[in-house]
Specification:
Blueprint (H helix, E strand, L loop, with lengths): L15 H11 L4 E5 L5 E5 H17 L7 E5 L4 H11 L4 E4 L6 H11 L3 E4 L4 H7 L8 E4 L15 E2 H5 L16 E6 L9 E5 H12 L11 E4 L11 H8 L2 E4 L6 H10 L4 E4 L1 H14 L8 E4 L6 H11 L2 E7 L6 E5 L10 H8 L10 E5 L14 E6 L22 E9 L5 E6 L4 E3 L2 E3 L1 H8 L5 E11 L3 E10 L7 H8 L11 E4 L13 H7 L9
Helix pairs in contact: 1-2, 1-8, 2-3, 4-5, 7-8, 9-10
The chain binds adenosine monophosphate (AMP).
Length: about 550
């Protein structure tokens, strides 16, 4: 066969640093606003973020950090965290976000697995780091993200205040020249089964992911946007927002350590935020605040909700009461994280009221760059009929090809498909709907019942604060659903009232066999219900029907 003729276009490497360069040159004065950990609102812009990132890169080099080194961050969303990411990748090192909500032992395990050499840590998390640092031998330097005036006493040897440390270098520095396939970021999965596994993003995957994220059928970001990433930078690559906003010159508003309803609302209104993104729990807190205060959301246009299924009541409140468009999205740490987004399409543009809310329960369509399929356990494709559930598999240029250190190879196949561990159905328009995690789906008499669907309905009851559905052993049906409910403060819904509330909304055989009431549900560090732990708590539970 004749050799193909090569194109004659430039190889312009897709590097994360090019994003901040562009922002500084073309949107240099665009604001980056943060609620600082010290308290006051801090204002800067992309030109300054880049200048300080250059300084940070130079200072890191002087510290002996170089290409391929892992540099940890345990920090809230602030301008300092943002400039740290860019400075780290600017010398070819790797930002490694740590989730401070994990147990200290788990954080230490992750830091040792990654062999982090230096850490940027917020004041809030110093006590955690003091506990774990002695068991992380690779860690040689601690930089506390504050100034000298706020630097506390600490038992950490050689800890320095960020501002003083940064001032020891100037910004006369050039980003190192590296390949676009070099690693840029590292984020560990929540590890609901076994030890957490590291997902290693490349410069290229981050830049391509941003191109996808900014598009109208995704986050729809532009230089006119004022975007507030409430989702922490330490969750799933911060949903890529640290790259998408500077790529288009969108202003950034970062909530720092305060993510309660009142604090979020304060920033949304004073900073005239038009776009925001976070997990459903954050929005439940905000909506509760709005209910209690009667406050409004005059500037907000679009909210991306993902990380867990978005409850119908949240979509309804945003869209019908506040006129804010909800984009329900699905993704994973392994997918950078955007996988699918539910945005308006001609096929569904006429939907209104309850039909529209039904549609918005789905996690949406794959943007260009994400290929998906559903299969049975033998890897045979299942039809896209909107009913048949199967294992959801994805591949694309911002989907992981493996885990750090070669772990967990069983979820990647030779054709590049990554088995997400989610169960989903897809309709003829390509709209995907997650029905469960593969290990949480309830298997009743050979058929599957979606715990997510039942949970979403149950939290729609006015007396329910939170709900989880698990499969409990049943002699005849194998498993039957048990609804576990946390009532709202001061409310005492009955089993009968809750089951009556579900009646007519689901197939008869999906009806939970029983309802249990608890004070709280176990959660993972990323705020998801820990079904494994819940199943353990209810392992001796006997259903009345058994
Ligand atoms: P993580 O890697 O911690 O972000 O977790 C990814 C997992 O969160 C996915 O595999 C899903 O099980 C779940 N998830 C993410 N987004 C959604 C969503 N919109 N609806 C239901 N589950 C979701």
């Amino acid at each position: 066969m004749q050799a193909p003729l090569q194109g004659l276009m430039q190889h312009w490497p897709l590097l994360c640093t090019k994003v901040i360069d562009h922002a500084a040159i073309h949107h240099g004065r665009r604001e980056v606003i943060s609620r600082s950990v010290e308290g006051p609102i801090h204002r800067t812009d992309y030109a300054s973020v880049r200048a300080r990132a250059l300084r940070l890169a130079k200072r890191l080099e002087r510290e002996g950090i170089g290409a391929g080194d892992r540099v940890a961050t345990m920090a809230w969303n602030t301008w300092r965290h943002l400039e740290a990411w860019y400075g780290i990748v600017g010398i070819g090192a790797i930002y490694h976000t740590l989730n401070p909500r994990l147990f200290p032992d788990q954080i230490a395990w992750i830091m040792n697995d990654a062999e982090d050499r230096l850490i940027f840590v917020d004041l809030t998390f110093l006590p955690i780091l003091e506990k774990i640092a002695p068991s992380v031998p690779s860690l040689t330097k601690v930089v506390v993200l504050t100034d000298a005036a706020h630097m506390p006493e600490t038992s950490l040897p050689g800890a320095v205040a960020y501002e003083a440390w940064l001032a020891e270098a100037d910004e006369d520095f050039r980003w190192v020249d590296i390949d676009e396939t070099a690693a840029a970021g590292l984020c560990y999965t929540s590890g609901t089964t076994g030890n957490p596994k590291g997902v290693l993003y490349s410069h290229r995957s981050n830049v391509l992911h941003s191109f996808i994220a900014i598009a109208p059928d995704a986050m729809n970001l532009s230089s006119m946007s004022r975007a507030m990433p409430v989702v922490p930078l330490f969750h799933a690559n911060g949903w890529g927002i640290a790259f998408s906003c500077p790529m288009v010159g969108a202003a950034m508003v970062m909530p720092g350590p305060k993510m309660d309803g009142a604090s979020i609302h304060e920033l949304l209104s004073t900073e005239r935020v038009t776009f925001t993104a976070a997990v459903p729990t954050v929005w439940l807190m905000l909506l509760d605040h709005l209910d209690r205060t009667g406050a409004d959301l005059p500037d907000l246009k679009r909210v991306v909700i993902g990380g867990a299924a978005c409850p119908r009541v949240v979509t309804k409140a945003f869209e019908e009461r506040f006129g804010v468009e909800v984009v329900h999205a699905w993704g994973m740490t392994e997918t950078s994280p955007l996988g699918t987004l539910n945005v308006q399409k001609p096929e569904t543009a006429d939907l209104k009221g309850e039909a529209l809310l039904d549609h918005k329960q789905a996690q949406g369509q794959a943007p260009f760059g994400v290929e998906m399929r559903i299969t049975d356990d033998e890897n045979r494709d299942l039809p896209w009929d909107g009913q048949t559930f199967g294992r959801l598999k994805v591949r694309g240029p911002h989907v992981a090809a493996g885990y750090y250190g070669g772990k967990g190879t069983e979820v990647f196949d030779e054709e590049g498909w990554f088995d997400t561990g989610d169960v989903a159905h897809i309709d003829a328009n390509g709209t995907m709907r997650i029905t469960d995690r593969a290990k949480d789906v309830i298997k009743s008499g050979g058929e599957w019942i979606s715990s997510i669907d039942l949970e979403n309905l149950a939290v729609g009851h006015p007396d329910v604060a939170e709900a989880a559905v698990i499969g409990v052993a049943h002699p005849r049906w194998d498993e039957r659903p048990l609804l576990v409910v946390v009532p709202k403060d001061g409310k005492a819904p009955t089993r009968e009232a809750l089951l009556a509330f579900l009646d007519g909304k689901i197939a008869k055989w999906w009806m939970p066999d029983d309802v249990a009431f608890v004070d709280e549900l176990p959660h993972t560090a990323t705020g998801k219900i820990q079904k494994l732990e819940l199943r353990r708590q209810f392992k001796d539970y006997r259903l009345p029907t058994a």
